[in-house]
Amino acid sequence: MHKTKIVILGACPGGMMTAVRLQKSLNLKEAEIILINKEDYHYQTTCLHENAAGTLHHDRTRIPIRNIIDLDKVHLIIDKVVTIKPEQKQVKLEKQTIEYDILVIGLGFETESIGFPEITENAFSIKDINSARLIKDHIEYNFANYHNEENNEARLNFVIAGGGSTGIEFAGELADRVPELCREYDIEKLFVRVILLESSNTVLSEFEPELAEYAAKSLEARGVEIVTGAEVKECQPEYVIYEKNGEEVKLPTMTTIWAGGIRPNPILETSGFRTTDGKMEVTDHMRSKEYKEIFVVGESALLKNESGQAYSPSVDTAMKQAAVIAHNIKAGFNNTRLKQFRTKTKGKVVSLGNEDGIAVMINGSTFYGWKAAFMKQLRDNKYFFHLGGISLLMQKGKFHLFY
Amino acid sequence: MHKTKIVILGACPGGMMTAVRLQKSLNLKEAEIILINKEDYHYQTTCLHENAAGTLHHDRTRIPIRNIIDLDKVHLIIDKVVTIKPEQKQVKLEKQTIEYDILVIGLGFETESIGFPEITENAFSIKDINSARLIKDHIEYNFANYHNEENNEARLNFVIAGGGSTGIEFAGELADRVPELCREYDIEKLFVRVILLESSNTVLSEFEPELAEYAAKSLEARGVEIVTGAEVKECQPEYVIYEKNGEEVKLPTMTTIWAGGIRPNPILETSGFRTTDGKMEVTDHMRSKEYKEIFVVGESALLKNESGQAYSPSVDTAMKQAAVIAHNIKAGFNNTRLKQFRTKTKGKVVSLGNEDGIAVMINGSTFYGWKAAFMKQLRDNKYFFHLGGISLLMQKGKFHLFY
User: Fold this and answer.
1) Does any CB of chain A come closer than 8 Å to the CB of residue B133?
2) How high does pLDDT run on average in chain A?
3) What region holds the FAD/NAD(P)-binding domain (chains A, B) (predicted)?
């Protein structure tokens, strides 16, 4: 008897949640589940900025896949996806080629370079555990070098390019970390600059002006310099040049963090799928419109609501999509009814370091300060709970006390 | 009434111990004690290799001067010595010039470059807290970079040039640290190489062959590759070239630690004193033979015993010299008898990581393994005790348990 081969690409939140649901619901005599991922661990993307600033150890952010997935039920392959061949129902990996009957694509995101590779190639970006850990060590290494050179200010200037939520959240964490770094490396705080460059006229432009202003003030109170209307023109290993009001400013720095947004994994495009901004359009069953045996989850899925508006991707959305996908795969075996993806946006939360934040709810109510920081924590904890139950929550969850 | 101005240069072990003794014994109505140092802390040079490997935090090695010295009794000036003018009885610092009646020179050591600045300028050396901390962070930074590049083995090859006690002790600590670094950065130990290059035919040539061999075996058992008869020819930021048996070997590495010995601070030479190998000859009262108001302690002091042999410098020796200097300065006020410096060599101890070591006593008996490691610990602890009493010992002392 031929077992149906279900291949899940990527241990991103959507991929993981699909596997978690399928390992419980499917009859493994009729189906084989294969999960393919570059590493043997999953990580929570919403915490990477903390790992990069060094305020949270990366082992608090990542989870060995074997802790969540029953490897007797799901076959885990550690390999990198090279291309998908939908006509042959094959996925080419670096070390082998895998056939599938049902494919779930959840390959996550990469950093958006907005068409300026010459700017971003000398900048760091927060995209995964490896890059976040590198940023942390790069910052520390510059502090360590300072007293071994003659007053090189480039070592202690840290530039964040982009005032969206990634840039702001990272700036908040770094502002929290700087005093600790100053103690560790015997450097006066006075000499350390954290400079956030934003090309538009305000940071967090997707938020209400009073919330964005609150966030800016919170960061500035902790020493972050925010420069709006500043367009990055050049980024070299030892300096950055930005233009503001027609004038060019050269900033000596050995650390530029590119926080200019994210885009879906380009493998969909390079594999020849029909895409819009790198995303594949899906039905509300989360199924590709081109290939009915392909499901897409998370960043790569383009799903429009009744009024034609695309859902904005979030970890929360991806988890719900995964539940729909797992249900619909199971329904395919039983010929039961398919589920449709329906969700309301939950509002937005941005943390500003450990003890501050802003949030806006779907009903329009807004929160500042520790309440918002607490909401962000709740959200992270809820994620752990849904993925791995109480035990994962207790192991990785955040239980800061606010006072 | 003119107070006698006693100026101590350097918070090295000898300088610190002189200040500690003088602040107790002198009548501060007739004498003023000034201690000049680059930093506001003192550190234990015998632990720097542990800080550099990352097995001991640098705060365990250094002590704020104010914790040991009563700053109501001793005037501490944080500044760098530029030159000494013995004819004018002046010391020129970067920010001011200081007059003295009595001068104690204890300026410590720097790394010996053995006439090859072109080799050592791309290498790291373990000379103070700043350089040790930089090495630690440089090693970590290379580990962090590894997964962000395409298999660059230079990141994970660590070369130690010099198989004397500094090189061996550092190799021992690094061997202890590597497994921890591998866990932290998700790297298989297999990929990490620690390579120790020694130009002569044996490491630790000042030790008996069986002890040197024991040390080599201990390191090799923990993965250190020891190459004897290897002369370093070139050291670049991304590789090292050494010659062995007439053949040149190129080793890709971004980390070369130069462990080729130390030499006294060159300020004695550049100030125009008569020196031998950078050291100033002193009488057995620890007084300069040229200028009777100048005392010299530690690395910079050249003192010969009755048979004309120079005492080899060590922290232990410097502490004893300082006690003699403090006594003789006090005696100068009271016109009492001067003390002479007399000491026996105590034997030598070399640690090989946390739990192993070798030691040879003055009576010729030898020790291996945890006993020798324990003796090294005892020696470090004794130092803290002599300098700052029980409270400093409890604060900074090492109390590893051996089993």
Assistant:
1) yes
2) 91
3) 5-322
Q: Is B80 on the interface with A (CB under 8 A)?
A: no
Which pLDDT does position A235 carry in this prediction?
Answer: 93
CA B37 to chain centre: 16
Q: What is the mean pLDDT of residues B249-265?
A: 91
Q: Is A59 exposed, middle or buried (0-12, 13-18, 19+ CB in 10 A)?
A: middle
Nearest to B137 among A130, A131, A140 (CB): A140
Instruction: Annotate A102-120 with b (16+ C-beta within 10 A) or e (fewer).
Output: bbbbbbbbbbbbeeeeebb
Element (H, E) at B323: helix B315-334
Long-range contacts of the stretch A115-120 (C-beta < 8 A, 24+) = A116/A232, A118/A234, A119/A232, A119/A233, A119/A234, A119/A235, A119/A258, A120/A235, A120/A258, A120/A260
Give CA–CA dist B67/B395, Å, rounded.
Answer: 11
> To probe the interface with B, which of A94, A140, A254, A255 has the most B CB atoms within 10 Å?
A140
> In whole angstroms, what is the distance from residue A196 CA to residue A193 CA?
10
For B183, other C-beta atoms within 10 Å of its C-beta total 11
CB contact under 8 A, A137 and B140: yes
Question: Which tokens in the block code for residue A126?
Answer: 């927060």
Give the CA angle between residues B151, B154, B155 to the nearest 5°.
Answer: 75
Q: How confident is the model at residue A365 (pLDDT cuts 50, 70, 90)?
A: confident
* Residue A169 a catalytic site member: yes
Tell me which of B50, B169, B198, B299 is the catalytic residue.
Answer: B169
- Are the beta carbons of B137 and A138 separated by less than 8 Å? no
For residue A161, give the H/E element and its range: strand A157-161
Structural domains of chain B, ranges and CATH numbers in brackets: 4-38+79-110+263-343 (3.50.50.100), 117-261 (3.50.50.100)
Please indicate whether residue B120 or residue A17 has the higher confidence score (pLDDT).
A17
Residues of B in contact with A185 (CB under 8 A): 133
B401, pLDDT greater than 80: no
Question: Any chain B CB within 8 A of the CB of A60?
Answer: no
Residue-wise pLDDT tens digits, A106-133: 988 877 666 567 777 899 999 899 999 9
Helices (H) and strands (E) in chain B, counts: 10, 24
Quote the minimal CA–CA distance from B132 to chain A in Å: 9
Instruction: Give SS3 for B215.
Output: helix
| B140 interaction partners in chain A (CB closer than 8 Å) | 137, 140-141
Mean pLDDT of chain B: 91
Q: How many CB pairs under 8 A join A and B?
A: 40
* Chain A contact for B138 (CB, 8 A cutoff): yes
Q: Would the pLDDT of A367 be above 90?
A: no
How does residue B113 score in pLDDT terms, banded at 50, 70 and 90?
Answer: low
B25 interfaces chain A, CB cutoff of 8 Å? no
pLDDT tens sequence across B271-293: 999 999 899 999 999 999 999 99
Put simply, the answer to whether B138 touches A140 (Cβ < 8 Å) is no
| A343 vs B: CB within 8 A | no
Crossing angle of helices A129-146 and B129-146, rounded to 10°: 160
**Marked catalytic residue, from A50, A169, A173, A198:** A169
pLDDT one-digit tens code per residue, A166-192: 999 999 999 999 999 999 999 999 999
pLDDT in tens, A35-58: 999 999 999 888 999 999 999 999
Indicate the DSSP class of residue B201.
S
Residue B33 has pLDDT above 90, yes or no: yes
pLDDT of amino acid A401: 61
- Name the residue of chain B whose CA is nearest to A133's CA: B144
Nearest Cα to Cα of residue B107 among B38, B23, B6, B32: B38
What crossing angle do the helices spanning A209-221 and A165-185 adopt, rounded to 10°? 10
Sheet of strand B102-105, all strands in order from the earlier edge strand to the far edge: B74-78, B31-37, B4-9, B102-105, B294-296
Instruction: Quote ipTM for the complex.
Output: 0.86
